[in-house]
């Protein structure tokens, strides 16, 4: 079986279309001698002279005339093959912890789409624990979460520092349990807060439990309770009250990326998303998930 060199065939077609070696070389960004070498290689491979040259003219031989149509089809098939690979849609499932996702996420995904329209990302929003479990089970290909427990794997994207926040009007009456606004028991930041209070021997009571992040924010903003937030993501108008009420320091955490993606397109997409996260630090209350 004869194997054809794509560049040699391209040189032949350029010579036929442009009527000479000089113009073909200019069109292909090559030297005239390089075009000549490619043509000789193709003629040797086929066993036929394709171009007849005289001091005054360049024209196709009879075999060249016959081969020209097939050569065009060969190049077109080659271009279609390359285009089909470039247009192949890349799909992967990405989990983003609810305290990471926010108003900026659509803009970041749009940025990825502009970078590579063939990319399809299935986004799953849940709490960090559920997402890392799903990642370990192979249900998602990548996850951006807050680091859980003592697990040390994953690529660190950003630090997460917590504090106690409340409205400037919030009053904690002496002798009464601390009124804590928190989400459901599965909330990781809730665990950080309650463990710290228990270790310090401070009594507490939960209010507005499980009402959703908007309810928790409303309770804090209204001065009805305090809550643990990321220092960079506390509700507008809230102030840090840990020192004021003698509350314990909260341990820091990290936002990490877990991924099993190996193909170049998916890894590049994830790199862009991770870079954007590092740059912009998506501003969403971190008491979710």
Please provide a written account of the structure.
By secondary structure, this protein is α/β, with parallel strands linked by helices. The chain folds into 3 domains: 6-87, Arc Repressor Mutant, subunit A, CATH 1.10.10; 90-159 and 253-280, Periplasmic binding protein-like II (D-Maltodextrin-Binding Protein, domain 2, 3-Layer(aba) Sandwich), CATH 3.40.190; 162-240, D-Maltodextrin-Binding Protein, domain 2 (3-Layer(aba) Sandwich). It has 9 helices and 12 strands. It has helices spanning 6-18, 21-28, 32-46, 62-87, 104-115, 128-136, 188-199, 213-221, 264-280, and strands at 51-53, 58-60, 90-97, 119-126, 142-146, 155-160, 162-166, 178-181, 204-207, 227-230, 239-240, 253-259. A 5-stranded mixed β-sheet has the order 4-3-5-12-6, sandwiched between helices. It has a 3-stranded antiparallel β-sheet with strand order 10-7-11. It has a two-stranded antiparallel ribbon with strand order 1-2. Helix 7 (188-199) links the parallel strand 8 (178-181) and strand 9 (204-207). Helix 1 (6-18) packs across helix 4. The longest helix has 26 residues, at 62-87. The chain is rod-shaped, with a radius of gyration of 32 Å. It starts with 5 loop residues before the first helix and ends in a 9-residue tail after the last helix. Mean pLDDT is 82; it is low at 282-289. Residues 4-61 form the HTH lysR-type domain. InterPro entries: LTTR, LysR_HTH_N, LysR_subst-bd, WH-like_DNA-bd_sf, WH_DNA-bd_sf. GO terms for molecular function: DNA binding; DNA-binding transcription factor activity. This is LysR family transcriptional regulator. It comes from Caulobacter radicis.
